[in-house]
Here is the input.
Amino acid sequence: MARTTGSHSDITGPRIREVALDLFARRGFAAVSMRQIASGVGVQAGALYNYTPDKQSLLFGLMREHMEELLAARAAREVPDDPLAELEDFTRFHIAHHLERPDAVFISYMELRNLSPENFGLIETLRRAYEDQLEEILKRGVAVGVFDVPDTKIATLALIAMLTGVSTWYRPAGRLSVQQVETIYWDMVRKAVATA
Amino acid sequence: MARTTGSHSDITGPRIREVALDLFARRGFAAVSMRQIASGVGVQAGALYNYTPDKQSLLFGLMREHMEELLAARAAREVPDDPLAELEDFTRFHIAHHLERPDAVFISYMELRNLSPENFGLIETLRRAYEDQLEEILKRGVAVGVFDVPDTKIATLALIAMLTGVSTWYRPAGRLSVQQVETIYWDMVRKAVATA
DNA sequence: GTCTATAGGACGATAGAC
DNA sequence: GTCTATCGTCCTATAGAC
Here is the structure.
């Protein structure tokens, strides 16, 4: 892992984030030391502090990046007009996006309690903004009579929990493609909010 | 927190488990020290080792107890005969049981990676046994034509993720009773697996 | 059963040389 | 920008007195 002394600012920065994401996801933030991260990158522990003021900022940066990427990817999408097609789009987007970055997904809800109160608040705001997009779809569908849910807020949380749960069991080498998984979940989501 | 020197084996044992459960849930296993647990109990750190061989056994004991209690509570139930009523019973049981012990629920899926491989395997076996009960209900319902799910294994995981997710947002002081929450979720579960 | 004391090591973060 | 060296603190777990 050792590396020759010298300047590598363009490489080291991203590598630190990469290694930290991997180690935090696999062992947990509190169980990972700055020395372990440095070793994975191939530098000494002190060198990390050229890139982050402290360990917690490293975690926060990874989580904020993940949430902002999620919101940006969602915003970049061309969204259909009717609520049913919109909900299908959201479902498929959510599953595909989350399965593409399992480590970031994992730490973003497992390590919330290791954030300072300020940082926690910032992440929660981003998470709320994302959830609100789903709730708005449900509200529109209820308004025009294509959905029937007793409580849009709870339905939102229930559906997101269900969809995000894919990350806990999906393995790319398994028997199902991402598209097949999307379709199976969409079938359940569609029916769960359908008019009786 | 200090306590007079002396024998308290009948009190200290349960208190250690109680304090550990609370601290592990609030801050995470790796972030909690034996000294902090001892301080919460009102003894010195060394005294803990009269009750547990090490920190990890303490965690494992809490998780195993939680899973065994879950299976026992489920087994003690009188289960209705038709799949639809059975599924409603499972849904309401799962929600009520989990909302009664949020800390144990929390650590039981957040701290899996802090278990040794052997202990992890034991907990996974118990978890699988519980999940299998739901899958059997779904299979029976599909067999007699009252449920329509494309994949019972995935539906099982999806429904459990949705139901367990209640623990992340429910607060007893909130606007809804446990019964109301059960009913809202049952409405979604019922429709999600219904025949089209 | 609990205490005090400690072994033996890892931690986060910083200072100063190059 | 990275290194080596280190400060001060905390950790798990054990030993031996009471």
